[in-house]
Design a protein that fits this description.
Layout: H1 10-24, H2 28-33, H3 36-46, H4 58-73, E1 76-84, E2 96-97, E3 104-112, E4 115-124, E5 127-133, E6 148-157, E7 160-169, E8 175-181, E9 192-193, E10 196-197, H5 198-208, E11 212-216, H6 219-222, H7 236-248, E12 253-263, H8 265-275, E13 280-286, H9 293-305, H10 312-329, E14 338-339, E15 342-343, H11 344-351, H12 355-361, E16 366-371, H13 376-389, E17 396-400, H14 418-421, H15 428-442
Parallel strand pairs: 8-11, 8-12, 12-13, 13-16, 16-17
Antiparallel strand pairs: 1-3, 2-5, 3-4, 4-5, 6-7, 7-11, 9-10, 14-15
Helix pairs in contact: 3-4, 7-8, 8-12, 9-10
Length: 443
């Protein structure tokens, strides 16, 4: 039985009861109390990549939310509900379900076996009209923030000025440096998503281990992009190369000890970037899949559809996408159509890019860090394909079934969305493995 705090007035006790039901897996009463606007916003947060409603009802969405909480931090053990002034908190609007501030507001601390999280609830005449996810980012606890400094470093490419953070360990000698490349989305230099700052975790973790890094605001974060101009090299590859050239000229960086690390889509493009800059000492692929773009999307969707927790609406939507992908693979789609929200020209160009072949052709070694907590069959297949392809001395593939897409250690099967709701840091084990690999090459 989850421990609850029952002190307070009737609204306080009602929130206690509703949230206790959520964390104990008895969500029906909470689902009934959700205002329809809150439910609709929750559906959107759980499926951020589509405008289509993919949940059958609020209870199904709340069950998925609970699964995300357990994956991130283990089973809930207790909660505490605190009253807050209606106008005394400023919850992040991007992580609030509901439109209007409620007359009664509460912040709930949920203590789980492996972490603590914060929720916000707004109550109006018995209905929940606000549901907020109010975890705040905190840096990794094991990092000594006095052991490094950060300075702004700007560069220009294709008419746009980029800003970024150069993270430098305290040593005076020129440093080996890792250029960090984001995954998909309109993200800043930290790769901020919800309460996560993935690239900041990586940068500070590397600095704590004596390795410099550079991370920069993504082009799509700084300006609008014409999707019809997006291709294999522009903008991701071209911008990463420009960042590398800027870092190589910095007096505190050893230009002969440059490394490249890309996450997700940035990891998939990392071999292509390195193909155009042969001075990288090593390339690190963080959660970048080995399969070709349409094939990996099809396999990823198929495995998602086969999960017990997938809804009928999700399965129906996935069937539609897979039908499109199969038509593309059979050359049955024309160049005027879109696939997965992308112009067909881009899909055709990226589909011809041989990631594993390109990585295998590099003279520099490659490290692949692949998690498997969300879609284990697909992720393990990806790790095996990388392993079969990389034959350079010092190349290494590390598959960790317990890591999610953000290399956070999970405590049950990932449902792919927990990082958007509940804070955690990149696993120190993942950063340690990357740092050890880099140090061995430099030495």
């Amino acid at each position: 039985m989850v421990g609850v705090n029952t002190d307070g007035d009737e609204p306080h006790e009602q929130v206690n009861t509703l949230i206790s039901g959520l964390i104990e897996g008895e969500v029906e009463q909470l689902a009934t109390a959700l205002d329809p606007t809150v439910a609709d916003d929750l559906y959107s947060l759980l499926n951020p990549d589509t405008d289509e409603r993919l949940f059958d009802d609020p209870a199904t969405a709340l069950e998925r939310l609970r699964m995300a909480l357990v994956a991130q931090s283990g089973e809930p053990e207790s909660i505490d509900v605190a009253d807050v002034e209606a106008d005394g908190v400023d919850w992040d609007s991007e992580r609030v379900c509901g439109e209007e501030p409620a007359p009664s507001r509460f912040e709930i601390t949920v203590d789980c076996r492996h972490g603590q999280h914060q929720l916000g609830v707004g109550l109006d005449e018995g209905a929940i009209v606000e549901l907020a996810f109010v975890d705040e980012y905190t840096p990794p606890a094991d990092v000594d923030q006095n052991g490094f400094t950060e300075q702004e470093l700007a560069f220009e490419n294709d008419g746009l000025e980029f800003c970024g953070s150069l993270t430098l360990p305290a040593e005076d000698d020129p440093n080996a440096c890792v250029i960090l490349v984001h995954g998909s989305g309109e993200t800043d230099r930290n790769y901020e998503s919800g309460a996560q700052q993935f690239l900041k975790d990586v940068a500070w973790g590397l600095a704590d281990r004596g390795i410099a890094s550079y991370r920069y605001d993504k082009r799509s974060y700084l300006t609008d992009i014409d999707e019809s101009n997006v291709g294999l090299d522009w903008p991701v590859v071209d911008d990463a190369l420009a960042a590398t050239r800027a870092v190589a000229e910095h007096p505190d960086i050893d230009k002969d000890q440059l490394f490249l690390a890309g996450h997700s889509r940035g990891g998939m493009f990392a071999p292509r970037i390195a193909e155009h800059f042969d001075a990288y000492r090593g390339v690190i692929i963080l959660e970048g899949y080995a399969q070709s773009f349409p094939e990996y999307m099809a396999e990823l969707y198929r495995e998602h559809s086969e999960q017990d927790w997938a809804t009928d609406r999700e399965r129906a939507a996935i069937d539609g996408v897979i039908t499109q992908i199969d038509a593309f693979l059979e050359s049955e789609l024309n160049s005027e159509e879109e696939l997965m929200g992308r112009p067909m020209q881009y899909i055709q160009e990226v589909s011809k890019y041989d990631k594993t072949g390109t990585a295998a052709s590099l003279e520099s070694p490659v490290l692949v860090l692949q998690g498997g907590a969300d879609l284990p069959e697909f992720k393990e297949q990806s790790a095996n394909l990388w392993q079969e392809s990389l034959t350079q001395p010092d190349s290494k593939v590390s598959y960790s079934p317990e890591f999610n897409h953000f290399l956070q250690r999970t405590h049950s099967q990932s449902v792919g969305v927990e990082a958007g709701f509940f804070h955690d840091n990149v696993s120190s084990d993942a950063i340690e493995e990357a740092a050890t690999w880099i140090t061995a090459i430099v030495d």
